[in-house]
Amino acid sequence: MPCKIYQPVLVELKHEGMNIDFINIEADENREKVLNSKISSIPITIIYKDGKEWERLVGSQSKEQIKYFMSE
Questions:
Q1: What digits encode the pLDDT tens for the residues 41-51?
Q2: What is the dihedral of CA 41, 23, 5, 44, to 10 degrees?
Q3: Predicted TM-score of the model (pTM)
Q4: What φ, ψ does residue 62 adopt, rounded to 5°?
């Protein structure tokens, strides 16, 4: 449920022109992907810069928090 509540925040950021792409992974249906990605808590936002993982934000985040981390 937390992921479904969090998704609209990401959609809003995309509509506001932020250069973001996001994917939703159903953790219960994709256990191997979750384990391989070392995800231990959901929801999680993984921010990549220059093709490399840069930051992990655990839990639902506000638009302001995501904008802050993406602007660094």
A1: 888 888 888 88
A2: 20
A3: 0.71
A4: -80, 165
Other C-beta atoms lying within 10 Å of the C-beta of residue 10: 20
Residue with tokens 């928090």: 65
Give 27's pLDDT tier (boundaries 50, 70, 90).
confident
pLDDT reported for residue 1 = 65
Q: Does the domain formed by 2-71 have CATH 3.30.70.270?
A: no
Rounded to whole angstroms, how far apart are CA atoms 29 and 33? 9
Helix (H) or strand (E) holding 58: strand 52-58
